[in-house]
Design a protein that fits this description.
Blueprint lengths: L3 H9 L11 H10 L1 H16 L17 H8 L5 H8 L9 H26 L1
Helix pairs in contact: 3-6, 4-6
Protein name: DUF4186 domain-containing protein
Pfam families: DUF4186 (PF13811)
InterPro entries: DUF4186
Length: 124
């Protein structure tokens, strides 16, 4: 089992995954809503779009923009069951339990917080 830091470091080495970054609109949304609300959204998105055993539109359920969590899902390879299987060996046909869902949310939030902090530190 890898740590969040190990997972994020591995993702940074991927040409595709490393292209995702929060934009000003995402930062503004985080500033408006706060990290607790963003975490709540992440929990909801993971529970409804990623955790079910069967997802009819798997591979297409996560937009590429429109919410910081969506960007994080693509950056962290948590956008669909195919990516979860490829990157984390999570079986495609298995309902994700609460612990598994929280691990995904924790990874997404760690990525968002790093991006948020990097964005704000580069602004100064």
């Amino acid at each position: 089992m890898q740590t969040i830091d190990e997972a994020l470091d591995k993702l940074k080495k991927s040409d595709f995954r490393s292209r995702f970054h929060l934009k000003q609109k995402d930062i503004d949304y985080i500033n408006e809503k706060g990290m607790d609300k963003i975490r709540s959204h992440a929990e909801d998105f993971v529970r409804t779009r990623l955790a079910p055993k069967y997802i009819p539109n798997d591979g297409k359920q996560t937009p590429m923009r429109g919410h910081p969590v969506f960007i994080a899902q693509h950056a962290c390879a948590c956008c669909c069951r195919g990516c979860l299987n490829k990157w984390y060996r999570v079986a495609k046909d298995k309902q994700l339990n609460e612990v598994e869902q929280q691990k995904i949310v924790n990874l997404l939030m760690a990525w968002i917080e790093r991006e948020y902090n990097d964005y704000n530190s580069n602004k100064e």
